[in-house]
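[Q] Does anyone have a clean structure-token version of this?
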Amino acid sequence: MADGKQVITLKTVLHEIQEAGTEFSLKFRKEDGSISFKARVKKNPSSVKNKAAGFVAPVKKDLPTLQRNMNKSGALMLYDCQAGKTFEAKIRRLVEFNGMIIFHNY
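[A] Here you go.
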């Protein structure tokens, strides 16, 4: 690459995002075409239920099933740790993950 950045595949990015408690940086394109950068992001914790309240966690899905579900919806629900807010990022608009350029290998 001309700018010297490493490249990571989209498949690897989606896999790493699913790791529990993983924080990462993310650069993506918004609908209006502008670029947004979030320095500290993790998958949306609002889906976590309180086990003390009697919640039984569903069986974890395998990676191909998770990828199909995300690709079907086309978006990731994520949590911005610095702003303390959830946000949605379209998978096809992801640009960089932890400083590495995302290779969309469709």
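[Q] Thanks! Anything notable?
[A] The radius of gyration is 15 Å.
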